[in-house]
Amino acid sequence: MPGLVIVGAQWGDEGKGKVTDLLAERADVVVRFQGGNNAGHTIVRGDEEFKLHLIPSGILHEGTLCAIGNGVVIDPKILTEEIEGLKRRGVPAANLRISANAHMIMPYHVLLDTAGEARLGSSMIGTTKRGIGPCYADKSARLGIRVQDLLDEKILRKKIMAAMEPKRQLLRPHAKDPDLDLHSMTEEYVTYGHRLEHYIADTARLCWDELDAGRSVLFEGAQGALLDLDHGTYPFVTSSNPIAGAACIGAGVGPTDIDDVWGITKAYTTRVGSGPFPSELEDETGERLRENGGEFGTTTGRPRRCGWLDLVALRYAARLNGMTGLVITKLDVLTGIGPIGVAVRYRHPEGATFDQFPYHQSVLHRARAEYEELPGWDEDITGARSLEDLPQAARDYLDYIADFIGVPITIVGVGPGRDQVIWVSGEQEAVLEAA
Ligand code: IMP
User: Fold this and answer.
1) Which of 69, 96, 256, 296 is buried most, with the most CB atoms less than 10 Å from its CB?
2) Which CATH superfamily hosts domain 103-197?
3) By CB neighbour count within 10 A (0-12 exposed, 13-18 middle, 19+ buried), where does 100 fall?
């Protein structure tokens, strides 16, 4: 796997953290390329659970370099807390590298995010309120503060002043908020600078050097294709591009550096925040999926909306990403649920049907999924380690998905533990060999 991209194929929360953790063992570098601490992944190691928001999951592997790429937006308060938290639990962060070009989330971004949502009222996006959108907006407006600015107090102060002034107007009710004081904000960020200084690096060059030496780089995406700023369910999306093409921009490599793209999907669908969700189940089955799957947000604790697997959306995500492999997580959550629905087309209330993901929001917002019903299974599958260990109905379910999407399945998750996975025959060897 010289250059392998891992992306979410749904609305985020597909279990990318666990997959990255599995593959990181074999990678020389793991680099995150977009998003910020709106993401969150839980990694289970023995009886220990690690919740990370910014640091790539690979940090648990001693020999793997972990980079936060230029495309990520970094809240330095959260990042320093994460580093300290890992150190306290005996995980050294010595292999961490932070791009000097990554933009930073400032206190006014968080205030703007909250104020913007309040202003939208019932039309709110349902953001994570971590300041992600306003930070990317400042980046595009060329008012952003970058990690490298932490290293020069004079420049930092000047840039904060220029960026903060226009916000005062927007944040009038908060104008006297101590968080918006230029002096204390500069001081606070200079302190982060001291704590982060020795991790700051040219992470693009790091990727080039590793790739040029024939070593393997894993590009770790956050969120998922349907939250993509350009291709997702706009405006109910995040403010970055979680699709594979963005790995190039957010890590600083070229398209020819990417060899494989694996998309991660749950065996069903979830979404947090507002926006269309054609296969949503607002009934007892949806509730069971939420309970069985522990579907509450890692970052905000919000209950996730749940529904059957949406193959129309998944096929769209596969094409958008140029997927070469499909990872299916949480198959065990479907055990005992009875017959399983898979969304194979959408129907608009006026009667039209759609085999492809509709580009027009008026269609998508009112479309409901139509299903094929596949047999379920009752056997416990959490101990399965090969496809042969699965009941026939579970194997048929996987085959149906792979055929519909036209992408081979590489890994299947059957429980939260690191070892609770099925490597589809040949895939593990292929990854090992390439690494
Ligand atoms: P933001 O990224 O905080 O601006 O939120 C925009 C939308 O993306 C909201 O619907 C969030 O719930 C959603 N979102 C952002 N990050 C994640 C994630 O990591 N998993 C799932 N949804 C996310």
Assistant:
1) 69
2) Adenylosuccinate Synthetase, subunit A, domain 2 (1.10.300.10)
3) middle
